[in-house]
């Protein structure tokens, strides 16, 4: 079935060819190229067919289909022999260039006899000589054949490398790579890296470079101790080759790099991302390189004892690491044998053995911001405790285990979790037999205990409906077991979870955003939340008063739940009248717990008082209360509350603008947290708070580490939404720090998570991750990929009826990227979308910036031809400025009128309308006024003077007034102490005087 309408004219055909060239290499582009060849054959003139065949050969070459490329070239060669006049100079150059493509394709096919490869090189030599072309490209191909075979490489290298380059030589970057690989094969890492320097530094590039060189240079860099460079090249190089069938060998080398640096988990992640390469790569040579790299990774994973892990492999079945490794080994061995049989050497088998026998070069190298181990990717992996902590001792005899679990649970001890987890496993077994022991009680009570623990874990994940239901079920079982006190506590927990569920309804979401203010306040607003919590507190008090026979610990637990309900009400309402009731309940709890020596509730009461003062805005009082709580905890315990108390004091210190004290407390809290399970002391929150303290102290790299650790802990603990939000912040911070490749690698990893790929988390959160990635791609100079992502996001955000402002900003950024790509028609459409959304939810500064930049781009790229379009953008920006002024909008950056006048000057200058440009710049200077002490404003004024001086003195040839303007400005700025801003002005003045 055709993928596009059949071209009816040569113009339509050429347009279709141009559109197809914008597509990524792969089956879609190849199929379209095949159809366009069929379409070209309908025209009488041969030129359209030549161009269509060239496009098809390119699609086959870079789509990793080497068997088809020589067939297409044979048709082109026949056309050239029969109708050479059809080939103009450019087409003739392309034809002779592609002799090398065919030589490369034939080498990749082990079924092609060696004699045929040499015969093709003879054909290439004869053709070049007949055409009067230099033979350096021929000798280059002869060397590559020798290197492929593994024989006589030194002579072949000298015959090629000693010759001067020609117009038909491979690009400089490709030739540098071949030279470096020659030295690498000879065991000379140092010389290879020296040869690679121009490519590794980004000075030379092409279609395949620098990604190809990056992949080969990774291991030599590690062996040279240049680990930071290797890390950077891995991130940038992998992005340049991933999912690309024609660069599957490079992907294989990145997998090998992961396996040899302790990044096996990342290797499996990248393997999954490139699963399509198992079936899309039609080149046996690329398959050989790719599969060998895959086998190095799988071999390492299996050696580490994780052969049972799932692995992405050939389509049609599911694979484990062990199973896939066996399949890969068989196929790669077969390919090596076929190449060696064709070539009459053992080169390919030997190269495989060298790669597979290579020992890890580093035990650990942190490649990405999201460092994970194989244990982290194991299905249903348990929540990992910090590695510094020894796992709690769990009693083996069942009666002792049950008694111990209940004792620890009553104390609120974190190690109770491990006991309950063990019991849950034992009770679920078919052969479980409950002990007949009065100290243990009946099975129904144990089942109630387990349900209660499960409910607590659900509540910690904000799964309040599940928590409420589980607590209620546990309460019923406690009743059946004759435990009314435990039943009352479980029902109290259910009441609080139900209230939290009601309060959760207004935390955001489309429903709340769509609701009108009255309905929101009436049913889901703060007042409704506070009312639900007030009702819950009343029910808790009644339940407490009506339940006889409570033990002191049970009664203290009920008092704590009562205080918690009122504390949550204060947090919801922020009402001053709700402060005193919380403090009263906290005092009641403290008095009772002190009288009955319930340490964990004494600490809870003290911390509740501290948080109450914090919520009321009295941070000094909160700090005093926290100090008292810490003193009590250090003297009497429980020790597992210390990390939380230190975390609270750290947050208070941050609120009081004492970042260093905050850092000290939070770091100490994190140190102590290592003694307890991460979820029990909220280690994730400690890392997140430490990140904030680090940012205040000007230590962003350390902040970044804490953010990623916080996110990974949340992810391991099942709090995936929180984890993705924190990772989103980490990605933005890494982008702000200029760590573009780190940002992209992190977001690629997140977007590949199964739940994210399936769109399960909040769609706006996923959009934010993609938006940050698109901005990072733009910052990394990958304009094509960035533009494609922005276009997709703009289309999606157009449906956000509840958030037109976000759509306005995304569409505006999309328009700018389209302008940078030279697609001003599409840029205009995107800008119109942004303007329409802006009308519903104004974003004057962002839209004005976008429109001015579009105007500049169009005028700069198109000159006078783009002036009308550029002025249209500026007219829209002018209307936005007028509307913002009328609405009293406060601008945080440069005044919109000033920026607009300056841009009018720049746009008219680009278009050659110099009088209009000077008039606009004079207006901008008048709006700015004379410079003062502010350096930023002085810089804007100086730039406006500079451009006005350039227009006046250079383009309007009025040197005298221009010099007078510049000299006066220099004097003014110097008098104000802005000497740095005078340099561009004095430089321009010197130029004008020289020209006079």
List the helices and strands and how they pair.
Layout lengths: L9 H12 L5 H14 L6 H16 L6 H14 L6 H9 L1 H9 L6 H17 L5 H14 L3 H9 L10 H14 L3 H12 L10 H13 L3 H15 L6 H12 L4 H10 L3 H4 L3 H20 L6 E2 L7 E2 H23 L3 H11 L40 H14 L4 H13 L14 H18 L3 H17 L3 H21 L5 H5 L2 H8 L1 H21 L5 H22 L5 H17 L3 H18 L2 H18 L5 H14 L3 H15 L4 H4 L1 H14 L3 H17 L3 H17 L3 H12 L2 H4 L5 H17 L3 H15 L6 H17 L3 H17 L3 H19 L4 H20 L9 H15 L3 H15 L6 H21 L3 H17 L3 H17 L1
Antiparallel strand pairs: 1-2
Helix pairs in contact: 1-2, 1-3, 2-3, 3-4, 6-7, 6-8, 7-8, 8-9, 10-11, 10-12, 11-12, 12-13, 12-14, 13-14, 14-15, 14-17, 15-17, 17-18, 18-19, 20-21, 21-22, 22-23, 23-24, 24-27, 24-28, 26-27, 27-28, 28-29, 28-30, 29-30, 30-31, 31-32, 32-33, 32-35, 33-35, 35-36, 36-37, 37-38, 37-40, 38-40, ...
In short:
This protein is an all-alpha fold and 996 residues long.
List its salient traits.
50 helices, 996 residues, 2 strands, mainly alpha, globular, single chain, two-stranded antiparallel sheet
Summarize the amount of helix as a percent range: over 70%
From the N-terminal CA to the C-terminal CA, the straight-line distance is 69 Å
Radius of gyration: 35 Å
Instruction: Return the average pLDDT rounded to an integer.
Output: 92
Helix-and-strand structural type: mainly alpha
What's the count of strands?
2
**Low-pLDDT sequence parts:** 380-388, 506-523
- Largest sheet, spatial ordering of strands: 1-2
The fraction of residues assigned to DSSP E strands is under 5%
Main sheet properties: 2 strands, antiparallel
Number of helices, where a helix is a run of at least 4 consecutive DSSP H or I residues: 50
Coarse shape: globular
């Amino acid at each position: 079935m055709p993928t596009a309408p059949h071209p009816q004219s040569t113009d339509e055909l050429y347009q279709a060819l141009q559109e197809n060239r914008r597509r990524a290499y792969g089956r879609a582009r190849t199929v379209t190229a095949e159809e366009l060849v069929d379409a070209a054959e309908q025209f009488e003139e041969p030129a359209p067919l030549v161009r269509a065949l060239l496009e098809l050969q390119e699609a086959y070459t870079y789509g990793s289909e080497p068997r088809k490329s020589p067939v297409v070239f044979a048709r082109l060669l026949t056309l050239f022999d029969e109708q050479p006049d059809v080939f103009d100079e450019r087409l003739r150059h392309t034809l002779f260039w592609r002799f090398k493509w065919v030589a490369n394709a034939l080498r990749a096919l082990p079924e092609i006899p060696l004699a045929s490869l040499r015969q093709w090189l003879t054909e290439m030599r004869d053709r070049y000589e007949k055409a009067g072309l230099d033979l350096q490209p021929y000798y280059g191909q002869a060397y590559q054949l020798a290197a492929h075979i593994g024989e006589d490489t030194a002579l072949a290298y000298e015959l090629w490398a000693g010759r001067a380059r020609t117009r038909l030589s491979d690009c400089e970057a490709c030739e540098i790579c071949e030279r470096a690989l020659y030295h690498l094969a000879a065991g000379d890492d140092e010389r290879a890296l020296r040869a690679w320097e121009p490519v590794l530094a980004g000075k030379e590039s092409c279609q395949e470079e620098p990604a190809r060189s990056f992949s080969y240079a990774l291991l030599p860099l590690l062996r040279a101790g240049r680990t930071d460079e290797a890390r950077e090249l891995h991130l940038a190089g992998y992005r340049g080759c991933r999912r690309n069938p024609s660069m599957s060998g490079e992907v294989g080398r990145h997998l090998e790099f992961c396996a040899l640096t302790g990044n096996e988990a990342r290797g499996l992640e990248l393997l999954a991302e490139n699963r399509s390469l198992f079936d899309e790569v039609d080149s046996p040579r690329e398959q050989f390189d790719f599969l060998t790299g895959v086998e190095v990774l799988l071999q390492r994973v299996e050696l580490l004892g994780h052969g049972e892990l799932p692995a992405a492999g050939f389509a049609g079945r599911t694979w484990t690491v062990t199973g896939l490794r066996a399949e890969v080994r068989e196929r790669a061995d077969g390919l090596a044998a076929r190449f060696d049989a064709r070539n009459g050497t053992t080169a390919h088998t030997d190269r495989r053995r060298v790669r597979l026998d290579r020992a890890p070069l580093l035990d650990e190298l942190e490649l990405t911001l999201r460092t994970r181990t194989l244990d982290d990717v194991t299905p249903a992996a348990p929540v990992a405790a910090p590695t510094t902590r020894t796992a709690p001792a769990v009693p083996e005899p069942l009666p002792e285990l049950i008694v111990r679990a209940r004792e620890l649970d009553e104390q609120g001890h974190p190690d109770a979790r491990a006991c309950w987890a063990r019991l849950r496993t034992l009770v679920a077994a078919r052969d479980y037999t409950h002990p007949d022991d009065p100290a243990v009680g009946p099975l129904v009570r144990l089942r109630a205990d387990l349900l209660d623990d499960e409910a607590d874990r659900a509540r910690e994940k904000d799964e309040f409906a599940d928590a409420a239901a589980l607590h209620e079920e546990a309460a019923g079982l406690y009743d059946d077991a004759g435990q009314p006190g435990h039943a009352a506590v479980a029902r109290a927990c259910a009441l609080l979870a139900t209230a939290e569920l009601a309060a959760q309804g207004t935390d955001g979401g489309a429903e709340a955003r769509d609701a009108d203010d009255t309905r929101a306040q009436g049913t889901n607003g703060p007042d409704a939340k506070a009312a639900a919590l007030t009702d819950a507190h009343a029910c808790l008090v009644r339940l407490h008063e009506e339940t006889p026979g409570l033990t002191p610990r049970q009664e203290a637990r009920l008092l704590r739940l009562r205080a918690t309900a009122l504390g949550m009400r204060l947090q919801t309402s922020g009402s001053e009248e709700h402060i005193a009731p919380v403090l009263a309940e906290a005092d009641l709890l403290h008095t009772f717990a002190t009288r009955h020596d319930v340490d964990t509730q004494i600490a809870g009461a003290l911390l509740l008082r501290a948080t109450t003062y914090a919520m009321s805005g009295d941070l000094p009082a909160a700090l005093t209360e926290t100090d008292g709580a810490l003193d009590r905890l250090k003297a009497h315990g429980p020790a597992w509350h210390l990390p939380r108390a230190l975390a609270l004091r750290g947050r208070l210190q941050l609120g009081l603008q004492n970042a260093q004290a905050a850092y000290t407390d939070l770091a100490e809290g994190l140190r102590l947290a290592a003694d307890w399970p991460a979820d029990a002391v909220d280690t994730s929150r400690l890392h997140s708070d430490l990140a904030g303290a680090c940012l205040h102290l000007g230590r962003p790299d350390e902040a970044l580490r804490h953010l990623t650790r916080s996110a990974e802990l949340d992810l391991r603990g099942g709090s995936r939404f929180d984890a993705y939000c924190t990772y989103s912040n980490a990605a933005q911070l890494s982008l702000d720090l200029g760590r573009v490749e780190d940002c992209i690698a992190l977001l690629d990893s997140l977007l590949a998570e199964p739940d994210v790929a399936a769109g399960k988390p909040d769609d706006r959160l996923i959009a934010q991750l993609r938006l940050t990635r698109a901005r990072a791609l733009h910052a990394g100079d990958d304009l094509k990929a960035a533009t494609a992502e922005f276009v997709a996001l703009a289309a999606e955000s157009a449906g956000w009826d509840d958030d037109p402002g976000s759509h306005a900003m995304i569409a505006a950024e999309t328009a700018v990227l389209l302008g940078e790509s030279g697609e001003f028609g599409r840029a205009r459409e995107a800008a119109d979308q942004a303007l329409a959304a802006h009308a519903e939810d104004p974003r004057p500064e962002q839209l004005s910036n976008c429109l001015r930049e579009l105007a500049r781009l169009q005028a700069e790229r198109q000159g006078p031809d783009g002036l009308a379009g550029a002025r249209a953008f500026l007219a829209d920006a002018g209307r936005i400025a007028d509307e913002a002024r009328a609405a009293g909008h406060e601008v945080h950056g440069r005044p919109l009128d000033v920026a607009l006048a300056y841009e009018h000057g720049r746009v008219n200058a680009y278009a050659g309308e110099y009088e209009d440009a000077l008039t606009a710049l004079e207006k901008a200077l008048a709006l700015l006024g004379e410079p003062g002490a502010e350096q930023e404003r002085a810089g804007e004024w100086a730039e406006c003077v500079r451009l006005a001086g350039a227009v006046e003195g250079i383009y309007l040839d009025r040197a005298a007034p221009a010099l007078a303007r510049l000299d006066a400005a220099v004097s003014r700025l110097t008098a104000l102490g802005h000497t740095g801003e005078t340099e561009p002005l004095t430089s321009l003045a010197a130029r004008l005087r020289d020209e006079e």
